[in-house]
Specification:
single chain, 487 residues, alpha/beta, Aspartate Aminotransferase, domain 2, Aspartate Aminotransferase, domain 1, 3 domains, 3-stranded mixed β-sheet, 14 helices, 42% helix, 12% strand
């Protein structure tokens, strides 16, 4: 049934109302959701409706109740964890895909943009010869990369592990600074979380290559099959980048898969001042990056790149199904040329990962790069790195600030310092909670050298140097007030 002109106009007016509410939201004049927590909970947490209220009422509740009480993640001063709100163009592209391409498969424009955007992303991030697949986030992206590593390692000893299962102990080599999803991936892949061997770090949080060589050699002597070395291109804690080339050389010496987790930090290669830190990246067997972090995609967009995508297929194929592959099979001797988008699935991304149903994520990445280009991305990355450097520079000079580790990328770990206070960890913990409750500058915390650190991580497209200065001002103001109160 066709939509008539009146219905089209009605839908446009509803979309406009939602758009106006979002425009109001991104002015960031509203309080945190918890300020009116009881009010919106009463409005929303109601019994299951037996009768619907219609799209106008739903839109009204979205505009007046849901959107104004959204997350603080999108605020320009938000620098907790490594997440951010999607840019406007990302929201537009995701909305378009939700309506026009609810699945990434078949031969249409959205399907094409899956592969086009993967090629753009790989080229932009210095891994242009690799092939990729999108997934929901760094957790799944690491799982896919380590799934390929598992398949590769067992194939080297004549065993199809995806078909027959794990039949011997393996080792995965990563530092304590590696993301905890590495251990989870090991558990999910059936090799066990204890298969992840801890490798020592230097005083800058980077992998100790000599310790890596020692642990692999010990495992080989014990009959353990070395499966993968996991290096970091920007750790979650401090943004440290492991010595990639040296690690790659050790991995090659032992014939071990070399994986680089660049979920956060891979775009840092765009900053020419940092590019030398990524030497050796070109030797990786797999690399991940999350466009929903530094690149400004809406949440739920990560990419896994490998040198040989057929390994992913062998690791994750779901085997043919009559209702899927069977529905497009044709007699090649009589079949006409492809005339309909559903005559073929296109690239079988469902066999390269763990998702069958999956949204069109590529259009979001395509839109991000198409809007501002590589130069725009480079400017953003440089700006965020400069924000971390700005705070570090101030912390070195100010008597009431302490820099706990030199920033590598856009993370700066520092804290308030006072010789009048014995427990600086407690002071900075109290300071942090005050920052969060003021709802303006919202960093997270971490531990550096056994000390509690304030840990802003700048990845938001709306963040600029003024927000770094504002954070420092707030830390000094609140820290001074707390010290006076404790004295």
């Amino acid at each position: 049934m066709q939509v008539d002109a009146a219905e089209t106009a009605h839908l446009q007016s509803l979309l406009a109302r939602v758009g106006e509410a979002l425009d109001e939201f991104v002015k960031f004049d509203h309080p945190d959701a918890q300020v009116n927590g009881d009010g919106w909970r009463r409005r929303l947490d109601i019994p299951l409706p037996q009768k619907g209220v219609g799209i106008d009422r739903v839109t009204e509740e979205l505009v007046k109740v849901v959107i104004p009480n959204g997350s603080s993640i999108t605020r320009p001063g938000f620098s907790s964890y490594i997440t951010t709100g999607g840019t406007t163009v990302a929201a537009l592209a995701a909305t378009a895909a939700n309506i026009a391409s609810p699945q990434r498969y078949h031969l249409h424009a959205f399907n094409l943009l899956e592969e086009v955007s993967l090629k753009w992303l790989a080229t932009m991030c210095g891994i242009g010869s690799m092939q990729g697949v999108y997934s929901s986030g760094g957790s799944t992206a690491n799982l896919l990369a380590l799934g390929a590593a598992r398949q590769f390692a067992f194939e080297q000893v004549g065993h199809d592990v995806a078909a027959a299962g794990v039949h011997r102990q393996v080792g995965v080599y990563a530092t304590a600074e590696a993301h905890h999803t590495v251990q989870r991936s090991a558990g999910v892949l059936g090799i066990g979380r204890r298969a992840v061997r801890p490798i020592a770090c230097d005083d800058r949080g980077r992998m100790d290559v000599n310790d890596l060589r020692r642990v692999i050699a010990a495992d080989r002597q014990a009959g353990v099959l070395p499966m993968a070395v996991v290096a970091n291109a920007g750790t979650t804690n401090t943004g440290a980048i492991d010595p990639l080339r040296e690690i790659a050389e050790v991995a090659r010496e032992h014939g071990v898969w070399f994986h680089v987790d660049g979920a956060y930090g891979l775009p840092g290669i765009l900053d020419e001042r940092k590019a030398h830190l990524y030497q050796g990246l070109e030797l990786a067997d797999s690399v991940i990056v999350d466009p929903h972090k530094w690149l400004g995609a809406s949440i739920g967009v990560a990419a896994t790149f490998v040198r040989d995508r057929e390994l992913l297929l062998r690791a994750f194929t779901q085997e043919p199904a009559d209702y899927l592959e069977g529905s497009i099979e044709q007699d090649e001797s009589t079949a006409p040329a492809i005339e309909h988008s559903m005559d073929d699935f296109g690239i079988p991304y469902f066999d390269y990962g763990v998702e069958l149903s999956a949204p069109s994520r590529g259009v979001v990445v395509w839109a991000l790069i198409r809007e501002i280009g590589v130069e725009g991305m480079r400017e953003r990355v440089r700006r965020h790195n400069d924000m971390a450097t700005r705070i570090a520079d101030i912390a070195r000079q100010h008597q009431n600030l302490e820099l706990l580790i030199e920033p590598t990328l856009s993370i700066c770990c520092f804290r308030y310092f006072s010789d009048q206070v014995d427990d600086l960890d407690r002071l900075n913990r109290l300071l942090h909670r005050r920052l969060i409750r003021e709802n303006r500058n919202l960093p997270s915390t971490t531990q550096v050298g056994g000390k509690l650190a304030l840990r802003p991580c700048f990845v938001g497209a709306r963040a600029n140097l003024e927000h770094a200065d504002s954070l420092v001002d707030d830390v000094l103001r609140i820290g001074g007030e707390l010290v006076r109160g404790l004295s």
